[in-house]
Amino acid sequence: MPTVTQRFGFRTVFSSAICIMCSVPAALLAQDGGDAAGFPARPIRMIVPFQTGGLPDISARLIGPKLLEAWKQQVVVDNRAGAGGIIGTDIVAKAIPDGYTLLLTSVAHVARPAVQAKLPFDSRKDFAGITLTLSGGFVLVAPPSFGAKSVTELIALARAKPGQFNFASAGIGSGTHFAAELFKSLANIDVIHVAYKGIPEAFTDTVSGRVQFFMPPLASATPLVKDGKLLALAVTTRKRVAGHEDIPTLAEFGLTGFDWDAWAGLLAPAKTPRAIVNKLNREISRILSLPEVQRRMIALGVEAAPTTPAQFDKLIADQIVLATRLARAAGIKVD
Question: Which tens digits make up the pLDDT trace of 124-171?
Fold first, then answer.
């Protein structure tokens, strides 16, 4: 029987958007559809609806200083964590659509509506895509105290004691929750989900050994892995990650079909003038192509993934549909 990932093909949708972007003519990307010559005339507020440490926060702090250099306007990175990203996201949904209040979000933006029927905003209709910024894989990490030094050993321990081990997530319906549920399904293990308020808390209890594994974005886990506080057992990407070649893939342990990518992307409130959206898109795409930014991304285990605004809008719409199917198949929901 095909797995939920094989049936719904998350990575196929994600990869298609990236491939299409590569073929878009430069002339089309340059079309403004209006006048944005005076933008920005004051500081830009970039809201990250999660705690520090995730891909959106990393992305914001890579892009923000470069926008300041280019436009001589301050970019304020504002972490508004809470309710699985709902609080910060709602602020942007209701902001004046003038380009001065933006949302730097993650795959949780498409996962949340799949598990929670009532939200104060519509993840698709209340936002205008600017661009995908970064993409990368998740990594399976475990504390050294657990005793599992490989995916094979982790699976063996979990199967020997069904229902006795726990895994962390950054919240119900978060990207990390979906990632771990997919691993659980592929590995055919019975482990208990423990939801935290965010990535930092999940890391704290994983490092301490209160939970036995966690599947955060590789970029978030890299410092703790380098310090020896966590063991990186496998990445979810199809190939080993550049700069992190010592970490095997899940597929190398026979767990094929994992199809859930980590990403970050920038959104504006719906009805933001197209000229401003396009200007932001062009400048951020330029920033993501800078050699120093690319070197920093490789060190973190992520890659630049700029798209056109329309492609990012389509990616979000498609992944909401697919995430809903996955949530139903895996029984993921918010009460």
Answer: 999 999 999 999 999 999 999 999 999 999 999 999 999 999 999 998
DSSP 31-84: --SS--TT--SSPEEEEESS-TTSHHHHHHHHHHHHHHHHHSS-EEEEE---GG
Q: How many residues does the chain have?
A: 335
Q: Check if the beta carbon of residue 329 is closer than 8 Å to that of residue 123.
A: no
Q: What is the pTM of this model?
A: 0.81
Which of helix, strand or coil describes residue 185? helix
Q: Which of 251, 219, 220 is nearest to 234 (CA)?
A: 251
Residue ranges of alpha helices (H) inside the chain are 4-8, 10-22, 26-29, 55-71, 86-93, 108-115, 151-160, 175-187, 199-208, 218-226, 274-288, 291-300, 309-330
Looking at residue 288, its pLDDT comes to 96
d(CA 273, CA 173): 32
Those residues with Cβ within 8 angstroms of residue 118's Cβ, 6 or more apart along the chain or in another chain: none
